[in-house]
Design goal:
The structure is a homodimer of 337-residue chains. Chain A is built from ten helices and 16 strands. With 337 residues, chain A is α/β, with parallel strands linked by helices. In chain A, the strands form three sheets. In chain A, strands 3, 5, 6, 7, 8, 15 and 16 form a seven-stranded mixed sheet that branches. A six-stranded parallel sheet of chain A has the order 11-10-9-12-13-14, with helices on both faces. The first copy, chain A, is globular, with a radius of gyration of 20 Å.
């Protein structure tokens, strides 16, 4: 059996994670048992939710165990199979973790899914046509449920979730305004992703200033918002929300590394009769087929051209992850194994 | 025509309102035109929302005009009628304002409603079997939508909305825990209103302390919360909310008089996948008949014994209103005209 380089979490970060929280080790892959499949990973995914799992505290999922392979999404190829529905050479997406190979109990529903890479590059099944894309779909369709002509906003617009949100919203005839950090990202959001406008939140030192910029970008107010970040952007958006608007809360990345960030004016939930709802995409498996079909069609047809930041080599995964938490990535962050 | 003493708002309060914001004047009642009805008020309602209307700022309703009769709910008797569906002696509820008589265009739907006072004292149509009761019903039934056996909480539990919420929740087989200020109010909430427990928020100086007390009162966590106040109670409740819980936001009284009060940890909306939704009962007219029927039956049968604080005389309305904003009332605050 092949050697399997892998990254373990060996200590829990307090605040920002650092290299000594992780350890690269190499183990043998075990022999396959009946109904198991051996997958060689081509790409692994890095996502903000991983920081939350590194804490040993109440969250929506169990903490990442210490001295075990870091969890995470992977795409790759079946290199050995003892399951009748998977053949050597099949391209598959799963939760293989931060390692080179994974042994998968392929009989367990949802652990491994075959993908068609004839029109969509395989790495996109970790992003636009994967978990981040379905996340955007669920928030847009199930929580915001917009009408054509309405104005929607999304934070972290150049990221994997935000860019998919924009493509899905434009496909429904909405005006879409993004938030991103820096001119390069904002230009990309407007020129390549087709958003109607993008606001550089780094140009604003407080939410009132940001909210003024938002007034120009959203002359008819905001009917729905998709929140990936929290903090200043959310405060600014809430001031501009129209009556009966909806806010889908998918991420609070700014709070992961330290103290909770308060919501400045929650009374706007009453004043504007808002619905603010949190969700986790993995709890809505029924949405995945419909969402993936739409996302695959948008990417396959070239209407949605998702961007990626690719780190090379498993050993560089921690460094790439630190960059992701600081917003250094541009589009979906993956690691080429 | 009779003389009509009435109270006008003559200047807008900044912070707490004071007596010089109001003026008691007496005008003649005009002669009735066709389809109009003259109502002599027996009671008028005082409600926290009135403070918000005194501001000349964005809110969910137009500001109270200056030098005009203060808005507000009233119950009374028809003393003259030029409308075929209303007869002298009919008991009616309407929005007559802070005055002794009102002339109502009785043809306009929703302005005037006849009530049956044979089993329910007339003043309760301003409280338990009126707008506050329907407010509790909408938040409970339309937003929280609880199952029997679930745990629900409500702030300002001894007030008009909170006490109705408790009665409606108990009727659905829920565990109900209230918040109130002071031992007298808490005893009343448990012993007379039939709540399972009541927490005196005045015994706690911060939301973490309050949240510990809540843990004892809600050993299975909280599935739904009805928010009348905001601030510390909401922060404490959010820490104890179960996954997929709902929070109906009906009031943020603590913020009316000054700066907005932040929500300390909005990331719990994501962590616990909460739905937080604001609403205004007047925007849901379709709910009123069903809600009033249930509330009338609860009060008429004696299962729900709402309490009132009665101020005597129109001239004392401003002082009673100041007390209401400070929580000095006990149950529904009304003024006997």
């Amino acid at each position: 059996m092949p050697q399997n380089p892998q990254i373990h979490l060996v200590s829990r970060p307090t605040g920002e994670p650092s290299a000594d929280n992780f350890k690269l080790i190499t183990l043998d892959t075990p022999a396959l048992q009946d109904k198991q499949v051996l997958v060689k990973h081509e790409y692994m995914s890095l996502d903000p939710y991983m920081r939350g799992r590194m804490n040993d505290s109440k969250s929506y999922t169990a903490p990442q165990p210490l001295n075990a392979v870091m969890v995470g999404g992977t795409v790759g190829e079946v290199v050995e199979s003892r399951h009748p529905q998977f053949a050597v050479g099949d391209k598959v997406v799963g939760m293989g973790g931060w390692q080179t190979y994974s042994v998968v109990d392929a009989d367990t529903p949802g652990l491994l899914r075959k993908v068609d890479t004839s029109h969509v590059p395989i790495s996109h099944f970790l992003g636009a046509v994967g978990m981040p894309g379905v996340t955007a779909w669920h928030g847009l369709v199930r929580i915001i449920n917009p009408q054509a002509g309405q104005t929607l906003t999304v934070s972290a617009a150049s990221g994997a979730v935000g860019s998919a949100f924009g493509a899905l919203a434009k496909a429904r005839g909405c005006r879409v305004v993004g938030f991103a950090g820096g001119k390069d990202k904002c230009d990309y959001v407007v020129n390549e992703l087709g958003f109607d406008a993008c606001i550089d939140y780094k140009e604003h030192s407080d939410y009132l200033s940001l909210s003024k910029a938002l007034k120009d970008a959203c002359p008819n107010g905001i009917d729905g918002h998709f929140e990936n970040v929290g903090g200043m952007v959310l405060d600014a958006v809430m001031l501009r929300m129209n009556e009966f608007g909806s806010i889908a809360v998918c991420g609070m990345i700014a709070g992961y590394n330290g103290k909770p960030i308060p919501m400045t004016n929650p009374s706007l939930i009453l004043m504007s009769r808002l619905k603010v709802q949190g969700f986790i995409v993995s709890e809505h498996p029924a949405d995945w087929p419909e969402a993936l079909k739409e996302l695959g069609a948008l990417v396959g047809s070239g209407k949605f051209k998702p961007r990626e930041t690719v780190a090379h080599g498993l050993a560089n995964a921690p460094e790439a992850f630190f960059g992701l938490l600081k917003g250094k990535n541009f589009g979906k962050q993956v690691v080429k194994i």
